[in-house]
Amino acid sequence: MWNKVKSYIKKYKLLNDNNLYLVALSGGADSVALLLMLDEMGYKIHAIHCNFHLRGEESDRDEQFCETLCMQKHIPFHRIHFDTLTYAEMHKVSVEMAARELRYRYFEQLRQDLGAQGICVAHHRDDSVETVLLNLVRGTGLRGLTGIQPRNGYILRPLLCVSRAEIESYLAEKGQEYVTDSTNLEADVQRNKVRLQVLPLLQELNPAVSDNIQQTAEHVLEAQKVLDTVIDDYKDAKTITFNELDKIGSREYLLFEWLKNYGFNGVQVQQIMEAETGRIISSSSGYDVLKDRDAYYVEPSLKPFNSLRIPEEGIYMINETAKFSVKKESVWLSKDAAIATLDADQVRFPLTVRQVEEGDWMIPYGMEGRKLLSDLMTDRKMTIFEKRRQLVVTDADNNILWLVGIRIDHRYRICGNTSNTLTINISER
What we know:
Strand content: 15-25%
Radius of gyration: 32 Å
Number of strands: 21
Largest sheet: 6 strands, mixed
Structural class: alpha+beta
Oligomer: single chain
């Protein structure tokens, strides 16, 4: 077991000889074995113990055992006490989640205070196998079949290559005692049911089931690494075309990996794939995804736009990042799409900046007849996202002067009789 763990640490480059590491020590067999093994290997370690005060005298027994063990081994010992039940009630989370949040917050703070390189926790192969089975029961994507990873940020797991039985055998050979958390013997939570009931049944079918599941998880992990190199190219994308999806070979997989970053779940991704063109689906995290003619688009959900009234010349803020500048000046014509140049004598204040509304029309510059703005935007192949963001500027009679950034109305154009120009400029703040 010692050689197996040493090789595993080397394979995944978990530890080196020159840095300090913290070891999460509960007093149970797994964490005790981890502490002793890393100490034997010569790594510089400190032990950290959390007393959650959830099991009365048993919690205090565990703390005393850990302190005594570290004194015997001359390993620096750090401890902390938590009122876990009060924390769970105040933050409206389960007791298990409260303990997890408190534990890892303390671990990270102590790591920073001591300048430690990582935090070693004692998850072993059986924990990873249980995770794979639980994910299968709950429903999972490919990533859920990779089990527990050897490294997650500063959290390191050197014992993932060995089983609980190997750990107990190692401790027995050394004559090393440990404590047992009585709640681990109760089949009253999902993980313990898998551990105490499901896995023994599977082992009757194949005694090597845990080894096989773990090996499969490692194979899936390697495949996931290959897929991640592809996914990374799209992680921050706001648009993915159907052609790009088809080149990958699986629209559903790439869509899920892309959209989960924006808060979409697997059910929503399936709805998006089956949706008709032009359908918008929203996530709980404040993003919308659009299935358009030849691509999928994602953007923050549109916030309500309050119409902006412009009573006279000046500078007016639209939002935190954009502004309108309105002023009269000598006759000139701009070809910049962000600037509308109009015949000032034909424009009646106050002006209004608002979003496009159903039934809006204008006479586009260079044309003679009316045209609905919806048709004008469709002709430009604008997406629904672009259409819903589109602004117009109207005059006192609600006549549309400018489809912002696209076209002015022909009736307000500069012509040979124009003596004064009104310029409307939209720009970044």
